[in-house]
Amino acid sequence: MKITSVEKNKKNKDRLSIYIDDRFSFTISEEDYLTLNLYEKTEISEETIEYIKDTLNFREARSKAVRYLSLKLRTEKEVREKLLNQGYDPDCTTKVIDDLKAIGYINNKLYAQKYLFDRSKLRPASKRMMKLELLSRGIEEETADEVLADWKVEDSSVAESLLKRKFGKYDMSDKKILRKAYMFLVHRGFSRDTIKEALKAFGSDLSTSLDD
After folding, report:
1. Are 85 and 175 members of one domain?
2. Do residue 91 and residue 182 come from a single domain?
3. 198: burial class by Cβ within 10 Å (0-12, 13-18, 19+)?
4. Letter string b/e over residues 41-53, b meaning 16 or more CB atoms within 10 A of that residue's CB
């Protein structure tokens, strides 16, 4: 097998894309490329290729992933995108993720639980909206449903709390204020029935006030 082309990796300029017999084979850091003296070689063995993929690249990608995870909890999707954007190939990325999941460094359920807790404290929203947000971050639907099922805070109490915080000082009998309050809760994913019940707690009848 021959090295027929060496190119700067498009996603990470510190890595090189190596082509064997005119076909892409692997990426490698410039440092490892020089250490292995690949720049002086045209012939390369299967053993060397396997060593680069299974040892050098795996070790380096794993180290980067651990540093990335040390900053805060990340989803599997976030770690995968990070490594792919760093120029590591899909196979290497998957092996790193599987390894880190096995030792608990990547835990989508734990991420989802913390996300719900933080979201409820900073920017409360309906369970439906929080589920959509979890799904967009790569959390599996089954995991999202499981975590949300354990979440004891009901949408109605969250909606009432938001109304009190945002519109407590306003006259909710004013139709303009009522419409603003209604849309405010709609944008946070609450159903019409939940909004209706929340507004009732403030003495407003949604069914008659908004239809005039």
Report:
1. no
2. no
3. buried
4. eeebeeeeeeebb
Return the SS3 of 124: coil
Query: pLDDT digits over 48-61, tens only?
Result: 999 999 999 999 99
Q: What is the pLDDT of residue 206?
A: 57
Looking only at the bridges linking them, the beta strands covering 15-20 and 23-29 are antiparallel
How many whole angstroms separate alpha carbon 78 and alpha carbon 134?
A: 12
Q: Are the CB atoms for 64 and 126 separated by under 8 Å?
A: no
Element (H, E) at 4: strand 3-8
Residues 125 and 163 in one domain: no
What's the number of domains the chain is made of?
3
The Cα–Cα gap between 100 and 134 comes to: 20
pLDDT at 200: 76
Structural tokens at position 173:
């009998």
Structural domain boundaries enclosing 192 = 155-209
For 158-173, letters b (16+ CB in 10 Å) and e give bbbebbeeebeeeebe
d(CA 70, CA 144): 23
Here the CATH number for the domain that contains residue 92 is: 1.10.10
- The Cα–Cα gap between 29 and 88 comes to 10
pTM of the complete model beyond 0.85:
no
